[in-house]
Amino acid sequence: MFCQKIKRVIKLWGENMERKKYRKLLIFILTLNVLTLTVFFMYSVNKQIPDDMIFLVNKEEKFNFNLPMKANVEVEDIDVINVNNKKLPSNKINIDLNKPFTFASVKTGKAKISLKLFGVFNLKNIYVNIIDEIEIKPVGETIGIYIETDGVLVLGSGKITGDDGLNYEPATNKIKSGDYILGINNQKIYNKYDLINEINNSDGDLLKIELKRNDNIENIEIMPIKTVDGSYKIGVWVRDNTQGIGTLTFVTENGEFGALGHGITDIDTGILLDVKQGDIYESEIVSIVKGINGEPGELVGLIKNAEGFKLGSVTQNTGQGIYGNFNENNPVIKDITPLKIGLKQDVKKGKAYIRCNIKDEITDYEVNIDNVDINGNKKNKGIVLSITDKRLLEMTGGIVQGMSGSPIIQNNKVIGAVTHVFVKDSTKGYGTFIEYMISNIE
């Protein structure tokens, strides 16, 4: 009898332990599912709702996010915002994102929308900028671009053979690829010839070099090496200018222009170039290399870089293109009708047009908007489009280099600009939203 009781106790104890393990396993699985759903929900929120938005004055925007969340709308000016056709009584109002709502403003200003899960946990902020309605001239003209860097860009460093026959690396671990050399011994460096002259004028003495690295100014010292030919070197490869063919996207009523839709980067380092000065010129397309799958095509052009063909001056090179001042008397834009801009929330899948000059005439070509990503991390790839116009496909095979900056027009509004071609499919490409380009105008 006693042994049977012991066995029964052991059995019950074992069953109890199994139940505890099972409960722990269930709790673990439940916790994992909750965490997975939470992460997925947060990802969906970030994917569906943009970090920043632009609204137009006196235009009502309608939204329906269908999210089980509350949001607080905070504004700098309490007279700016109407939500659901009601004026804000204070600088903060709560809205339910599980229901449709409207957002409007009677004047320019700024607002911040804080998204809160269950009205408690802050998930993200949306920064809103309310601006006046803008009209621009969507140009689409092919242009030649020439820019000079602010200082000289370092491409890399290497070995130097000195006059003693030995190899030296004076710049290694001191000057890095992507650095800009701004000055030597308190002398401003404007181009590579200035750099060569200042190094040679050192007579082998220690050089005090001013660098710009990742937007920070740094000062280093390097001892130049005398070479066999009697000159002095520090062992760096540099570049101080670049040029190419692109497309002029728009000109504003104030004579400011935007072009390319993406920044000009160094071909070797991929680094966005710092512009000291630059110009855009008329260009002439001399041949077209058609794009095929795996090999992007190209507009081969001649830059008419003489003063009489100058179209404007470049003042900025940003991730969304180049910007500057346009020569308003130039006939390139004389007959172009201004159009309103369409914001990214206005862009829809379906038919649109790109404007470009392939055969000595600015022409609108039909495309299809395949996808719209209003909150992508890559701002110059928010629009995916396909070339559907048989004329353009026959001439270029799709999107080719040199067409970057071609304005995209939908419903008689400028909504963006072409930026990149799909390498594996030349009939498809990316575009940036026009509001990103407009925001770079100073």
Secondary structure: elements and pairs:
Blueprint lengths: L1 H47 L3 E5 L4 E3 L5 E7 L5 E3 L2 E2 L4 E5 L4 E5 L3 E9 L3 E11 L3 E23 L2 E2 L5 E2 L11 E5 L2 E2 L3 H9 L6 E7 L2 E7 L2 E2 L5 E2 L2 E17 L3 E4 L15 E15 L7 E7 L6 E9 L2 E6 L12 E3 L8 E8 L4 E11 L10 E5 L2 H7 L3 E2 L5 E4 L2 E10 L2 E9 H5 L4
Parallel strand pairs: 1-9, 22-29, 25-31
Antiparallel strand pairs: 2-7, 3-6, 3-8, 4-5, 4-7, 8-9, 10-13, 10-19, 10-21, 10-25, 11-12, 13-14, 13-15, 15-16, 17-18, 19-20, 20-24, 21-22, 21-23, 23-24, 26-27, 26-30, 27-28, 28-32, 30-31, 31-32
Number of H/I helices: 4
Percent in helix: 10-25%
Fraction in beta strands = over 45%
Domain count: the total is 4
Radius of gyration: 30 Å
This entry's quaternary arrangement is single chain
Instruction: Give the strand tally.
Output: 32
Shape: globular
CATH class designation of the largest domain: Mainly Beta
Cα-to-Cα separation, first versus last residue: 95 Å
Descriptive report:
The protein has 442 residues and is an alpha+beta fold. Helices cover 15% and strands 48% of the residues. It is built from 4 helices and 32 strands. The strands form 5 sheets. It has a 19-stranded mixed sheet that branches. The longest helix has 47 residues, at 2-48. The model has no long low-confidence stretch (mean pLDDT 84).
